[in-house]
Design goal:
By secondary structure, the protein is α+β, with helices and mostly antiparallel strands. The protein has helices at 3-12, 19-27, 33-36, 155-162; strands at residues 49-55, 60-66, 74-75, 81-88, 91-98, 104-112, 117-120, 125-129, 136-143, 151-152. One of its GO terms (molecular function) is iron ion binding.
């Protein structure tokens, strides 16, 4: 049984988990650039590469490759909670709140160092940015698998469509 099959088996035994419980699960696996190398995708339709290794109703495990100077869209994960492990590089986790008009506003930023864990609580709206000069590779587990996720456009980008 390889490590992905072992992780899928462990996830299938859970009906729900907190982000911290997902961290404990992640700590049981050797996640390194070498381990994840075959699953690191280059960006295509998105500004980052995304490889889903496990996807069931209960959970999803994903490898994200965020090139230097790039950022994800501002998004949430619906009703899912998540735990992420930064395998390589540096990231900034930007948190947002939605105003009364439906636009996201930055409320804070947290730097994430290599080999660090970070969390996505239920209904968190955030954006990952790579401020470094090298790629960032992270491993994410969400529970349940994100289903009702949303992407949010900042007010400035909406104006670009109008003007």
């Amino acid at each position: 049984m390889n490590w992905i099959q072992r992780m899928e088996k462990e996830l299938s035994g859970l009906t729900q988990a907190s982000p911290k419980e997902l961290r404990v699960l992640l700590q049981g696996f050797e996640l390194s650039p070498e381990t994840l190398a075959p699953y690191i995708a280059e960006p295509h339709a998105l500004p980052y590469g995304r490889t889903s290794l496990i996807r069931t109703e209960q959970a999803e495990a994903v490898v994200i490759h965020l090139p230097a100077g790039k950022e994800t869209f501002i998004h949430d994960h619906g009703d899912a909670v998540g735990c992420m492990f930064l395998v390589e590089g540096t990231l900034t986790n930007r948190m947002f709140r939605i105003d009364s008009y439906g636009y996201p506003h930055l409320t804070g930023e947290v730097p994430v160092g290599e080999r660090s864990y970070f969390y996505a609580p239920k209904n968190q709206i955030h954006q990952l940015a790579n401020p470094g000069m090298a790629r960032a590779v992270s491993f994410h587990i969400y529970m349940p698998a994100p289903a009702q996720a949303h992407t949010y456009l900042p007010y400035e980008e909406v104006l670009d469509y109008v003007i």
